[in-house]
Write a structure and sequence with these properties.
single chain; mainly alpha; 2 domains; 3 helices; 0% strand; elongated
Length: 98
């Protein structure tokens, strides 16, 4: 009987240790992988004050300036993809009832 109690005690200690380990692993995984991405998404979605909007506009302007200074803005794959998209839109607009 005493031996069963000892085995049961060891079992519960191991169970508690494994449970705590799993909780720590899940927490670390969340913090390392998802928290940063969720924070970035929250920051993007919470653009509601004037300063943030102006900062976003300035960043877009800077990126457009960088793109204009390059010889080619798009790589070959993007050009092909955009051209196919353009052709499809053009076809759909030509089929619109006038």
């Amino acid at each position: 009987m005493n031996q069963n109690k000892q085995k049961l005690k060891v079992f519960f200690i191991k169970l508690a240790a494994i449970t705590i380990s799993i909780i720590i692993i899940i927490n670390m995984t969340y913090n390392l992988i998802f928290a940063e991405k969720i924070e970035a998404l929250t920051e993007i979605l919470s653009i509601n004050d004037r300063e943030s909007i102006e900062m976003a506009k300035n960043k877009i302007r800077e990126e457009i300036q960088k793109g204009l200074s390059k010889e080619n803005i798009l790589n070959e794959e993007d050009k092909i993809l955009l051209y196919k998209f353009y052709q499809k839109i053009k076809l759909e607009f030509s089929n619109v009832n006038k």
